[in-house]
Amino acid sequence: MSDRTPAGQFLDAAIGLLRRLRDEEAGPIAAAGTMIADTVADGGRLFAFGAGHSSLAAQDLVYRAGGLALMNLLAVPGVVGVDVRPATLGSALERVEGLAGTVLDSSPLRGGDLLVIISLSGRNVMPVEMATRARAKGVKVIGVTSVAYAAETSPRNPSGTFLKDHCDVVLDSGIAVGDAELTWEGVSAPFAPASTVVTSALLQAVMATAAATLADRGVEPPLLRSGNVDGGRAWNTRVMTEYGDRIFYQH
């Protein structure tokens, strides 16, 4: 029996989006997971970037129990969250030309590394410039976006393109333009965004693929364990020591 409460409708919508990922994005998920496994096996480093709320999914990959220890956050000051004041400054910085290139030039990213760029709309200067500049450095780029924005909105960057146009692999979250799943009588605006839960699930599916792919090749994936289980801290110390030259969040 269908649950018509707002909570039930939102959860049904999220489940539907997750089922779409499972059924329609299996190929890109496998490709992205394999690319990450290749980077790890070849000695490369892993980075993730997202602006605003897209940064939540990026941060979910970093220093994460059950995740790859080699995933580092590529942080742009004022852009990675809503802690900046005013909060609207973060949105404005996404539209500043040259900022992404400056950040990349100051970062440890180098040829042979891999960068996950998360941008729901993929239309602003920041994600497009970051993808193009990273690839010019020989960095592989996985883009996580909603492809619908390219069909229903106009680009908001000088190239006239979207993030999806500058990636080695594109993961389509399938989120509708506007990122609001519900409407309700008496409520003027659509509400209940699902991009965070869907994007995080999408990326965890990719990371699971990467870990299993490494194991299938006979390579132990450098995974972290929870520090709240017995032996977890000792495990993590070993992993971080072994891969210390590819981990940047502990310095």
From TrEMBL:
Q: Which PANTHER family match?
A: PHOSPHOHEPTOSE ISOMERASE, SEDOHEPTULOSE 7-PHOSPHATE ISOMERASE / DNAA INITIATOR-ASSOCIATING FACTOR FOR REPLICATION INITIATION
Domain (SIS): residue spans on this chain: 36-220
From the Swiss-Prot or TrEMBL record, give the protein name. Answer: SIS domain-containing protein
**A Pfam family in this protein?**
SIS_2
Taxon lineage: Bacteria, Bacillati, Actinomycetota, Actinomycetes, Kitasatosporales
- InterPro entries in the cross-refs: RpiR-like_SIS, SIS_dom, SIS_dom_sf, SIS_GmhA/DiaA_subfam
Q: Which organism is it from?
A: Streptomyces griseorubens
